[in-house]
Amino acid sequence: MSQFYRETRERLSKLPGVRAAAASSAIPLSVRGDNQWLVVEGRPIDYSNTINAYRVEVTPGYFETMGVTLVRGRDFTDLDTTNTLQVCLINETTARDFFPGVDPTGKRLKLGAASEYIPWFTVVGVVRDLRFEDPSLTVRPQVFRPVGQNPANTLTFVVRSDGMPVESLQKALRAELKLIDPAMPLANFRTMESLVSDALARPRFSAFLLSLFAVTALLLTVVGLYGVVTYVVSQYTQEIGIRIALGASQRDVLSLVIWQGMLPTVIGLFLGIACAFGLSRALATQLYGVKPADLPTLICVSLILLLAALAACWIPARKAAMVDPAIALRQD
Fold it and tell me: What is the pLDDT of residues 307-327, one digit of tens each?
């Protein structure tokens, strides 16, 4: 079986437009893989809090094909067979949680149970974290095993192309696989873009709705603030005229009106930020790569609100600054 996967991988990688090819028992965002108990040599076993690791069998070149960085150590090779040292690769989460501050290469672990009949695997490298499950879930420990030492029942081939059209690439792959084994069942072909799109469809729709509500709220805020400031200016037209007649400059009138309009906005902004910190946990499951209390995001949103409020106050403030004192004083 390992020989078959190796030959298939080599033939697929030589196709025109294909940069690399590999196979794996699970691909990112596919929610496929084995969850097994993780035992680390030299670490006490807590039977009340078992640790489950995500086990994936891969062929050599899988991480290169998927564009996953090898942080430390080496990748698998075709020399990793059942007759050689049992090896594995781990992700950064496993290295950080179980080997803090030390190089995990050369350390040993096993999967399944602490039984003496289960062999130890020697860590030979560390790779970046992959997301095999829902993007909203925290990345769990991941252990990768070479197919040459632990054959999987089902593998998925992955290829990296040089920008070749998807339709042409699919035809070439189907034709080559039929030449390798005419009886081989061919499942659906997917691109990573489609996998990512499907995985993020639900949070993307939620983000769209939240954005729509946020833009609507912003527009209502601007219109409402503009109306309030315009009404206030109309009620104090005579007072503004008197100020101008007594020597107040247009800048003074502008500052007065804008300040009166911006003051409640600033107060509301601080109250909103405080509420945002308090309710941030409720939105944590809808955020990816951004912390609920992300300071740059809060600063950007605050600046947008302040600029929108300033724009709403500017037009009535400008009208107030252009008031003719003689006309204003003749009004009832």
Answer: 888 888 887 777 777 766 666
